[in-house]
Amino acid sequence: xxxxxxxxxxxxxxxxxxxxxxxxxxxxxxxxxxxxxxxxxxxxxxxxxxxxxxxxxxxxxxxxxxxxxxxxxxxxxxxxxxxxxxxxxxxxxxxxxxxxxxxxxxxxxxxxxxxxxxxxxxxxxxxxxxxxxxxxxxxxxxxxxxxxxxxxxxxxxxxxxxxxxxxxxxxxxxxxxxxxxxxxxxxxxxxxxxxxxxxxxxxxxxxxxxxxxxxxxxxxxxxxxxxxxxxxxxxxxxxxxxxxxxxxxxxxxxxxxxxxxxxxxxxxxxxxxxxxxxxxxxxxxxxxxx
Length: 290
Fold this sequence. Notes:
- By secondary structure, the protein is α+β, with helices and mostly antiparallel strands.
- It folds into two domains: 4-174, Sandwich (Jelly Rolls); 176-288, Orthogonal Bundle (Arc Repressor Mutant, subunit A).
- It is built from ten helices and eight strands.
- The longest helix has 19 residues, at 235-253.
């Protein structure tokens, strides 16, 4: 049996998703992989029939059948499909797309999306039929000229959400071997999810250990102790190394100005970026612009 790691399918148009705030696909082993977007802006709902191993935050679940999955871009997750045959549907959307008609609470506070919540549900045949019908309707509606199709699609998503809130969560989660390993894995995956930087107009949001601790809902001291214990390096060192690595890539492979590169990495002023870069590398950013 061949293992298959789900990866980003090359024909998924993320620029189109950014324009509309929504995209829906049929996914199966003969056509498409489950869509995975690099950007942290997109929530995901996916129905899938396969034998899989899903890692989500500090938990994981082994599935063999039909499941419904809710992905939060603020919480690291990965999906390994073990069986060679799989099928289902997936949609990705921004929070802004859904909030027009959704309650005012942030999506990542929903029990379906928040850390510590329940993102995975095993489905009965009746539930599978209902959820599939919602995806089929969204696919049919996505490319029509109906003037209110966004509202209609939001209604279909909300029906999926409310149907899921009535379901019992799966109880097959397993834990990391210890708390330090768990929080370090969360931190490292969340750090990597901040990259690559794709636009100079949306600066890096998570820049300090406090930022990551808040996003992971842990005390910063606990985060720092855990990362140091497991990796031997401080949280700040990991963040700095990743920022510098991204800075070098942007300086060498884009035509952005040095000021734009610095701004995209969270530095308000070019002098701040220059000083930071020189302190960590021993040279200034313009030396990479040969």
